[in-house]
Amino acid sequence: MMNRRIFTIALSLGAAAFLAPRAALAEDPVTEFLDSVFRPDAPHLEQAIGHTEAAIAHGRMGHSKVLVRHARAALAHAQMAEQASDDPHTVEGIRHLEAAIGEGRRNHARSATRHAEEALGHLEAAAED
User: Fold this and answer.
1) Domain that residue 18 falls in
2) When comparing pLDDT for 92 and 129, which is higher?
3) Mean pLDDT across the chain, nearest whole number?
């Protein structure tokens, strides 16, 4: 009788611990935004813009490592977009993303964020062209 109760309680706690983080993420507006932007079928420039926006958001929170992760993803997509069309705004956005990655690696979140913001402006201008 006691073993059955302990087992039931342990199983319930395990299920709650497993499902709680997913439930919390499902309600997170940032996660919903990222899910809508980071679609595999989205054009590279759109994905570069989405990752750059995420890098900026994390940079403003002082999260240098996460900024670098998103900036690297944005850089990869921006380079793919640049191969498709040689737009000077895309080239300039790539330059600023590389600078943001360098600053983020040095744990300089503020200056990395400024470079990411510059990159975002150029990538958005390239998207409008």
Assistant:
1) 1-27
2) 92
3) 84
Residue 32 lies in a domain: no
Token pair for 56: 């900026």
| Of 25, 28, 27, 49, the residue nearest 37 (C-alpha) | 49
Domain for residue 33, yes or no?
Answer: no
Task: Report the C-alpha gap between 119 and 73 in whole angstroms.
Answer: 13
Query: Which H helix or E strand runs over 90?
Result: helix 88-105
Are 93 and 42 within one domain?
Answer: yes
Q: How far apart (Å, rounded) are the C-alpha atoms in residues 98 and 109?
A: 14
Whether residues 112 and 60 share a domain: the answer is: yes
Q: List pLDDT tens digits, range 8-66.
A: 777 777 777 776 665 544 455 565 555 555 555 458 999 999 999 999 999 999 999 99
Return the sign of the alpha-carbon dihedral for residues 28, 34, 37, 38: negative
In a domain, 46, yes or no: yes
